[in-house]
Design goal:
Helix content is about 60%, strand content about 5%. The protein is built from 13 helices and 4 strands. The strands form 2 sheets. It has a two-stranded antiparallel sheet with strand order 1-2. The chain is globular. The chain starts with a helix and ends in a 7-residue tail after the last strand.
Amino acid sequence: MELLPAIAIIGVAAATAATLTPFVMRLARRVRAVDRPNARKVSRREEMPLLGGLAVGAGTAAGLIAAAVGLAPDEPLPQLAAFGLGAALLMLVGAWDDRFNLRPSLKLCFQIVAAILAIGAGFSFDRFSNPIWGVTLEVPFWIMWPVSLLWIVGVTNAMNLIDGLDGLSSGVGAIIAATLTVICWQAGQWTGVVIGLALFGALIGYLPYNFPPARIFLGDTGSLLIGYALALLALEGYRKTALLAFLVPILALAIPLLDTILSIVRRIRSGRGVFSPDRLHMHHRLLHREGSHRNAVLMLYFLTSCFCMIAVSFSQIDGWLAFIYLTAVVAVTVRLLRNLDAFSLHAESGHAEPGPSSEGVPEATEPESTGTTGAATKRPEAAAGSKGVEAKAGGGGA
């Protein structure tokens, strides 16, 4: 693909998303698909419209249509159609959840269906590069299906979990989409390139409405779409037959994947359900450390960009040098997580995680919670009769 058509796909997707977002905001308010703050959420902004993912989805679809018009007959249009079908299914599920709420188990079932559609169309972990001799091995069918399914569902939920601050999921998604698009371009995987360009353009067009202070939230409609698209992009990008090439998309998705893994481990260690929400995600810890909603989001943009640059450079490294490089990346990552106190079961500096008995009880410390959408900080009223100060902030839906 040449540069001019790539720019055209991005432009069409961005213009469509930017144009439709105000209409989606009005639609969300009309159908009452709005954020409802509660004791577990940090956002305290009433009536914030959800369904922002509809604008992102429409922009992505417009970009794909623009690309399909110029594709040669031998291009993999069936793969694009399968992606579109799976994405549309998850957007419908997300929209229903934004309006009426769905059980996590039911959402998981639909995610599995969307993943099966993608795997059947060829989005799969079907080859593996031997890390010593560089021999590319075919992955057996009975391994390929469960591993691919786990990857797609896992990444889809990872992007949903990090969507807890204004502009976080959309901005991080745009950075990762751009990175995976470059990797797919290097690998000659044009299906991934087209999907990545369309998604990147749509997110860029939508982001001005979602960046702090947000005027609309992605909701599950958007976070599920972004996670699903990035999962498929990663499966396309890893196919560059270099040593340890399967680690490249993992590095690009390091922030959402690490946050998801740490959340699961933390909840198991504390004896809680895997799906039970808490206020110990990376974005909550950064929100406390940075003291500013926008600074926390920009810091996560920076960290994501660092991992993405490592991923792009890693895709060019072969042999034992790749192992040395990977060891250094792992060491730096562990140090970063320790600095964020990410291995702790408790919030920092008195910001304790409330137990079930404290549900709904006003806290005397700054809550840092995650909910279906949004994140914010709230300072208690000062002693001696002085007024409390409340800092409002919101996000796209964790």
